[in-house]
Amino acid sequence: MKTKLDIRKLTYLAMLTALVVVLQLAIAPLIGSLTGLSPALVLVPIMLGVAAMGIGGGAWLAFVFCFIVLFDPTTVPFLEFNPFLTVVLVFAKGDKAK
Known about the structure:
Blueprint: H1 7-35, H2 43-53, H3 55-70, H4 76-81, H5 83-97
Helix pairs in contact: 1-2, 1-3, 2-3, 3-5
């Protein structure tokens, strides 16, 4: 079992996490307001994370994506209606991303 901390993988995961946050919070709403479409640009760093670091890295990036979507202003009305089901559906969607 490998117990050594791999700084390169940790740094790559941190950069991909930052990219997921920027794409989801800044770029996707901008493109959505200009075109009326909801692009899934955040899937690119998630797929890169799975390819480079395995399922663990992809799961972390998908969790970050789900956490951001959960507190998106468009999700809040669903949270007020049925919080449990909203959380389950958001995380199921993020799980399918990886």
